[in-house]
Design brief:
This protein is an alpha/beta fold and 263 residues long. 32% of the residues lie in helices and 25% in strands. It folds into two domains: 86 residues, ATPase, nucleotide binding domain (Nucleotidyltransferase, domain 5); 161 residues, ATPase, nucleotide binding domain (Nucleotidyltransferase, domain 5). The protein contains eight helices and twelve strands. The strands form three sheets. The protein has a five-stranded mixed β-sheet. Strands 10-9-8-11-12 form a five-stranded mixed β-sheet, with helices on both faces. A hairpin with a 3-residue loop joins strand 1 and strand 2. The longest helix is centred in the C-terminal third of the chain and has 21 residues. The chain is globular, with a radius of gyration of 19 Å. It starts with a strand and ends in a 6-residue tail after the last strand.
Protein backbone atom coordinates (compact mmCIF):
# COMPACT_ATOMS: atom_id res chain seq x y z
CA UNK A 1 0.00 0.00 0.00
CA UNK A 2 1.02 3.60 -0.58
CA UNK A 3 0.45 6.60 1.70
CA UNK A 4 0.19 9.87 -0.22
CA UNK A 5 0.35 13.01 1.95
CA UNK A 6 -0.39 16.66 1.24
CA UNK A 7 1.26 18.53 4.14
CA UNK A 8 -0.14 22.03 3.70
CA UNK A 9 -0.06 25.17 5.76
CA UNK A 10 -3.56 24.59 7.14
CA UNK A 11 -4.22 20.85 6.89
CA UNK A 12 -2.40 17.53 6.82
CA UNK A 13 -4.28 15.37 4.33
CA UNK A 14 -3.59 11.82 3.26
CA UNK A 15 -4.89 9.12 0.97
CA UNK A 16 -4.04 5.44 1.40
CA UNK A 17 -3.99 3.43 -1.84
CA UNK A 18 -3.95 -0.30 -2.34
CA UNK A 19 -2.67 -0.42 -5.90
CA UNK A 20 -4.93 2.05 -7.73
CA UNK A 21 -7.77 1.64 -5.24
CA UNK A 22 -8.35 4.41 -2.69
CA UNK A 23 -8.72 2.74 0.71
CA UNK A 24 -8.94 5.66 3.13
CA UNK A 25 -8.76 9.48 3.39
CA UNK A 26 -7.45 11.30 6.48
CA UNK A 27 -7.25 14.95 7.53
CA UNK A 28 -5.96 16.95 10.53
CA UNK A 29 -4.85 20.51 11.34
CA UNK A 30 -1.19 21.16 10.46
CA UNK A 31 -0.51 23.02 13.70
CA UNK A 32 -2.13 20.53 16.09
CA UNK A 33 0.15 17.50 15.67
CA UNK A 34 3.70 17.00 14.48
CA UNK A 35 4.02 15.61 10.96
CA UNK A 36 6.11 12.60 12.01
CA UNK A 37 3.79 11.73 14.89
CA UNK A 38 0.82 11.96 12.53
CA UNK A 39 2.47 9.63 10.03
CA UNK A 40 3.46 7.18 12.79
CA UNK A 41 -0.15 7.00 13.97
CA UNK A 42 -1.27 6.23 10.42
CA UNK A 43 1.34 3.47 10.05
CA UNK A 44 0.39 1.88 13.37
CA UNK A 45 -3.28 1.88 12.43
CA UNK A 46 -2.85 0.80 8.81
CA UNK A 47 -0.52 -2.15 8.41
CA UNK A 48 0.98 -2.91 5.01
CA UNK A 49 2.03 0.57 3.92
CA UNK A 50 5.32 0.27 2.03
CA UNK A 51 5.63 3.65 0.30
CA UNK A 52 5.13 7.21 1.54
CA UNK A 53 5.03 10.20 -0.83
CA UNK A 54 4.84 13.66 0.79
CA UNK A 55 4.03 16.94 -0.90
CA UNK A 56 5.32 19.47 1.64
CA UNK A 57 4.55 23.20 2.05
CA UNK A 58 8.07 24.14 3.12
CA UNK A 59 11.71 23.74 2.29
CA UNK A 60 13.22 20.26 1.89
CA UNK A 61 16.43 18.81 0.49
CA UNK A 62 17.53 15.19 0.14
CA UNK A 63 14.75 13.95 2.40
CA UNK A 64 15.45 16.50 5.15
CA UNK A 65 12.98 19.21 6.17
CA UNK A 66 14.87 22.50 6.33
CA UNK A 67 12.03 24.77 7.42
CA UNK A 68 8.27 24.95 7.49
CA UNK A 69 6.71 28.28 8.46
CA UNK A 70 3.18 26.93 8.87
CA UNK A 71 3.64 23.24 9.80
CA UNK A 72 4.54 21.64 13.13
CA UNK A 73 7.74 19.67 12.53
CA UNK A 74 8.93 17.06 15.04
CA UNK A 75 11.46 15.20 12.82
CA UNK A 76 13.66 17.02 10.32
CA UNK A 77 15.53 14.02 8.85
CA UNK A 78 12.18 12.49 8.01
CA UNK A 79 13.25 10.20 5.15
CA UNK A 80 15.95 8.37 7.10
CA UNK A 81 13.80 8.26 10.24
CA UNK A 82 10.91 6.42 8.61
CA UNK A 83 13.00 4.24 6.33
CA UNK A 84 15.18 3.08 9.24
CA UNK A 85 12.42 2.65 11.82
CA UNK A 86 9.57 1.32 9.68
CA UNK A 87 11.29 -0.11 6.60
CA UNK A 88 9.22 1.99 4.20
CA UNK A 89 10.36 3.97 1.17
CA UNK A 90 9.74 7.69 1.67
CA UNK A 91 9.88 10.52 -0.83
CA UNK A 92 9.34 14.15 0.18
CA UNK A 93 9.35 17.19 -2.09
CA UNK A 94 8.28 20.81 -1.86
CA UNK A 95 4.60 21.00 -2.78
CA UNK A 96 5.08 23.57 -5.54
CA UNK A 97 7.87 21.50 -7.07
CA UNK A 98 5.49 18.57 -7.21
CA UNK A 99 2.77 20.84 -8.59
CA UNK A 100 4.87 22.36 -11.38
CA UNK A 101 6.07 18.90 -12.46
CA UNK A 102 2.43 17.85 -12.80
CA UNK A 103 1.52 21.10 -14.56
CA UNK A 104 4.41 20.68 -17.00
CA UNK A 105 3.23 17.18 -17.83
CA UNK A 106 -0.37 18.35 -18.22
CA UNK A 107 0.46 21.32 -20.47
CA UNK A 108 3.39 19.58 -22.23
CA UNK A 109 5.61 22.57 -21.55
CA UNK A 110 9.32 22.84 -20.64
CA UNK A 111 9.20 26.52 -19.58
CA UNK A 112 6.45 26.85 -17.01
CA UNK A 113 5.83 28.51 -13.65
CA UNK A 114 3.13 27.55 -11.16
CA UNK A 115 2.06 30.24 -8.68
CA UNK A 116 -0.28 28.86 -6.04
CA UNK A 117 -2.10 31.18 -3.65
CA UNK A 118 -3.30 29.23 -0.63
CA UNK A 119 -2.51 29.54 3.06
CA UNK A 120 0.82 30.89 1.81
CA UNK A 121 2.20 31.96 -1.56
CA UNK A 122 4.20 29.35 -3.46
CA UNK A 123 6.07 29.04 -6.73
CA UNK A 124 7.39 26.11 -8.72
CA UNK A 125 9.55 26.61 -11.82
CA UNK A 126 10.65 24.43 -14.71
CA UNK A 127 13.04 26.22 -17.07
CA UNK A 128 14.20 24.55 -20.30
CA UNK A 129 12.93 21.26 -18.89
CA UNK A 130 14.84 21.55 -15.59
CA UNK A 131 13.20 21.86 -12.18
CA UNK A 132 14.74 24.86 -10.38
CA UNK A 133 15.52 24.07 -6.73
CA UNK A 134 18.73 25.88 -5.74
CA UNK A 135 21.62 24.89 -3.49
CA UNK A 136 19.46 24.63 -0.37
CA UNK A 137 16.13 23.86 -1.99
CA UNK A 138 14.78 27.40 -1.58
CA UNK A 139 15.42 28.90 -5.03
CA UNK A 140 11.77 29.67 -5.78
CA UNK A 141 10.40 30.63 -2.37
CA UNK A 142 8.30 33.43 -3.82
CA UNK A 143 6.28 34.02 -0.65
CA UNK A 144 9.37 35.03 1.30
CA UNK A 145 10.92 37.61 -1.00
CA UNK A 146 11.23 41.01 0.75
CA UNK A 147 8.31 43.31 -0.03
CA UNK A 148 7.40 45.79 2.71
CA UNK A 149 6.90 45.69 6.45
CA UNK A 150 3.71 44.36 7.97
CA UNK A 151 2.51 44.85 11.55
CA UNK A 152 2.80 41.11 12.18
CA UNK A 153 5.40 38.41 11.63
CA UNK A 154 5.58 35.66 9.01
CA UNK A 155 6.00 32.04 10.06
CA UNK A 156 9.61 32.31 8.86
CA UNK A 157 10.30 35.01 11.47
CA UNK A 158 10.43 38.05 9.16
CA UNK A 159 7.90 40.86 8.94
CA UNK A 160 8.46 41.93 5.33
CA UNK A 161 7.63 38.81 3.30
CA UNK A 162 5.30 39.33 0.36
CA UNK A 163 3.30 36.37 1.69
CA UNK A 164 2.13 38.70 4.49
CA UNK A 165 0.17 40.61 1.84
CA UNK A 166 -0.54 38.03 -0.88
CA UNK A 167 -1.98 34.84 0.63
CA UNK A 168 -5.02 33.41 2.35
CA UNK A 169 -3.24 33.75 5.67
CA UNK A 170 -2.55 37.41 4.89
CA UNK A 171 -6.20 38.17 4.18
CA UNK A 172 -7.18 36.80 7.60
CA UNK A 173 -4.37 38.62 9.42
CA UNK A 174 -5.26 41.94 7.80
CA UNK A 175 -8.97 41.48 8.59
CA UNK A 176 -8.02 40.95 12.23
CA UNK A 177 -5.65 43.93 12.18
CA UNK A 178 -8.28 46.30 10.74
CA UNK A 179 -11.03 44.72 12.88
CA UNK A 180 -12.90 43.79 9.72
CA UNK A 181 -15.69 41.21 9.72
CA UNK A 182 -13.78 37.92 9.49
CA UNK A 183 -16.59 36.29 7.51
CA UNK A 184 -16.18 38.66 4.55
CA UNK A 185 -14.96 36.89 1.42
CA UNK A 186 -12.23 38.19 -0.86
CA UNK A 187 -14.84 38.99 -3.49
CA UNK A 188 -16.88 40.97 -0.95
CA UNK A 189 -13.72 42.86 0.06
CA UNK A 190 -13.17 43.64 -3.63
CA UNK A 191 -16.72 44.93 -4.06
CA UNK A 192 -16.26 47.13 -0.95
CA UNK A 193 -13.03 48.51 -2.49
CA UNK A 194 -11.41 47.50 0.78
CA UNK A 195 -7.80 48.41 1.50
CA UNK A 196 -7.24 44.73 2.29
CA UNK A 197 -8.19 43.71 -1.25
CA UNK A 198 -6.19 46.51 -2.85
CA UNK A 199 -3.05 45.53 -0.89
CA UNK A 200 -3.63 41.87 -1.74
CA UNK A 201 -4.04 42.55 -5.46
CA UNK A 202 -1.00 44.82 -5.64
CA UNK A 203 1.18 42.26 -3.85
CA UNK A 204 -0.01 39.39 -6.06
CA UNK A 205 0.69 41.36 -9.23
CA UNK A 206 4.11 42.37 -7.89
CA UNK A 207 4.93 38.74 -7.08
CA UNK A 208 3.79 37.45 -10.46
CA UNK A 209 5.62 40.22 -12.34
CA UNK A 210 8.79 39.30 -10.45
CA UNK A 211 8.28 35.65 -11.41
CA UNK A 212 7.78 36.49 -15.10
CA UNK A 213 10.79 38.78 -15.24
CA UNK A 214 13.16 36.30 -13.60
CA UNK A 215 12.01 33.04 -15.23
CA UNK A 216 10.28 34.15 -18.50
CA UNK A 217 7.95 31.12 -18.78
CA UNK A 218 5.78 30.24 -21.75
CA UNK A 219 2.94 29.27 -19.40
CA UNK A 220 2.03 30.67 -16.00
CA UNK A 221 -0.37 28.44 -14.07
CA UNK A 222 -2.39 29.87 -11.17
CA UNK A 223 -3.71 27.58 -8.46
CA UNK A 224 -4.19 27.10 -4.73
CA UNK A 225 -7.23 27.46 -2.51
CA UNK A 226 -7.62 31.23 -2.91
CA UNK A 227 -7.63 30.94 -6.71
CA UNK A 228 -9.88 27.87 -6.60
CA UNK A 229 -12.44 29.79 -4.54
CA UNK A 230 -12.03 33.04 -6.50
CA UNK A 231 -11.50 32.07 -10.13
CA UNK A 232 -12.25 35.68 -11.18
CA UNK A 233 -8.75 36.50 -9.86
CA UNK A 234 -7.29 34.92 -12.99
CA UNK A 235 -9.02 37.51 -15.18
CA UNK A 236 -7.87 40.32 -12.88
CA UNK A 237 -4.28 39.15 -13.18
CA UNK A 238 -4.52 38.75 -16.96
CA UNK A 239 -5.90 42.25 -17.42
CA UNK A 240 -3.58 44.09 -15.00
CA UNK A 241 -0.24 42.25 -15.12
CA UNK A 242 0.96 44.41 -18.04
CA UNK A 243 1.13 47.36 -15.62
CA UNK A 244 3.68 45.47 -13.50
CA UNK A 245 5.67 43.07 -15.67
CA UNK A 246 8.38 43.85 -18.22
CA UNK A 247 6.72 43.89 -21.63
CA UNK A 248 8.95 41.33 -23.32
CA UNK A 249 8.27 38.82 -20.53
CA UNK A 250 4.60 38.89 -21.58
CA UNK A 251 5.24 38.13 -25.28
CA UNK A 252 3.57 34.82 -26.08
CA UNK A 253 2.79 34.17 -22.40
CA UNK A 254 -0.26 32.06 -21.60
CA UNK A 255 -1.86 32.50 -18.17
CA UNK A 256 -3.94 29.50 -17.12
CA UNK A 257 -5.89 28.36 -14.10
CA UNK A 258 -4.82 24.92 -12.97
CA UNK A 259 -6.91 21.98 -14.11
CA UNK A 260 -5.38 19.67 -11.53
CA UNK A 261 -7.45 18.69 -8.51
CA UNK A 262 -6.36 18.46 -4.89
CA UNK A 263 -7.22 15.19 -3.19
Amino acid sequence: MTLVIDAGGTYLRANIYNGDVLEKTLKDKSTEIGLAEWIENILFQNKGIKYINISFAGQVKDGVILSAPNIKIDKHDIKNYFEDKFGVKLSIQNDLNYAVLKEANYFKCEDICAVYIGTGLGLGVISSGTLIVGANGVATELGHIPYKEAPFVCGCGKNNCIELFASGMAIQKWKEYYKTDLSLTLEELKEMESKIYKEFKEAILHAIATTLTIFNPKILVLGGGVVQNNSWLVDVIKSEIKEYAMGISLDGLEIKQTKLKDF
